[in-house]
Amino acid sequence: MTGATAAAPPQPHALARYRAEFPIFDRQIYLNTCSLGALSRRSRARMQAFLDQWDARGAAAWYDVWWGALAELRARYAAVIGATPGEIALHAAVSTATAVLASALDHRNRPRVVTTSLDFPTVVYQWLARRPLGVEVVVLESPDGVSVPLQSFADAIDERTALVVTSHVFFTSGCVLDIRAVAELAHARGALCYVDAYQGVGQVPLDVRAAGVDFLTAGGLKWLLGGPGIVFLYVREELARRLNPTVTGWFAHEHQFRFDPRVLEFHTDARRFEQGTPALAAVHAQLGGLDVLDEIGWDAVFRTTRDLTRDLVERASAAGLRPKVAPDPASRSAIVMLPAADPAAQVRRLATAGIVADARPGHVRLSPFFYNVPDDHQRAIDVLTT
Predict the structure, then answer these.
(1) For the domain 48-292, what is the CATH code?
(2) In this structure, which long-range contacts are made by residues 303-308, counting pairs with CB atoms below 8 Å and at least 24 apart in sequence?
(3) pTM surpassing 0.90?
(4) What's the mean pLDDT when you consider all of the chain?
């Protein structure tokens, strides 16, 4: 499309009014939500309220305020993905959530774990670290650097496979994977399916029931506008009742305030996959981010983000930047990878112009969200092409 004229962009959309909710736009253009969602005034207010409670009441706030905040967050995370609160465990990072989950799986008869070269390494590393324990890791390659064919999954999953681990949205390309099809392939051979949805939840629709996945992780860092330090692990209800992790903590105990060192009684729901005391500042920041997103409405967030992604891809293509995205627009997300000889240098040039982006190997990454406008895209492209 080099030299072509970009299609007319969506005019300043209805959600542009929410830019005022994010002070960063007073100072610069923010096109880096896939690294860290912008801080909202409501997240700041929620965190300030937590600090005020801590200052005024100390630990007494646990029992009638903070405990309720944890329950509220489990319920609100569940609502985002079509789960129930009892299927949600809170964690500080996907790494800890995955470690707890991995400790609950039996690999004696099914040693194989199937994953891909496009998945974020923190998930894959958990299984590579278990090779000395007999876990056999199969890493599927991508023929185009964008996605992995379903046939590759079908060929790799066998009766020795315990788990298929992959992403809903590949961080390397922004391509949306058909996780329902992957889950069906896994289940047909008696394996379970674990999806890293951190790159997707909040920017593309996801329903765990419709997808049929067994486990899923996502969190506040990116599209849920909660910042670092808070994620969730979804565990399908039937599995949440019967799997027993061997990596654990006191929040996994059904009667944690008995403080009995002789008996470990797991919760009867996904809370058995929790570990220690959650970071309450992060919990409150996430509640603030969800306040904004719920007020807007998920359909509007998804629709506007999709329109902005299309606008960015069209403008970048017209400028000759050759975005590396899925060929089918329906399989694209708001992660737009632009090939670059020196991505870090280009990101520095953008920063000098007041534009926040990020670099990944061989690419500049732009990631618009509902609070961006087409002019943000054009200003970034102008810097990258001059």
Answers:
(1) 3.40.640.10
(2) 304/13, 304/14, 304/15, 304/370, 305/203, 305/204, 305/334, 305/368, 305/369, 305/370, 306/334, 307/10, 307/13, 308/10, 308/13, 308/334, 308/368, 308/369, 308/370, 308/372, 308/373, 308/374, 308/377
(3) yes
(4) 95
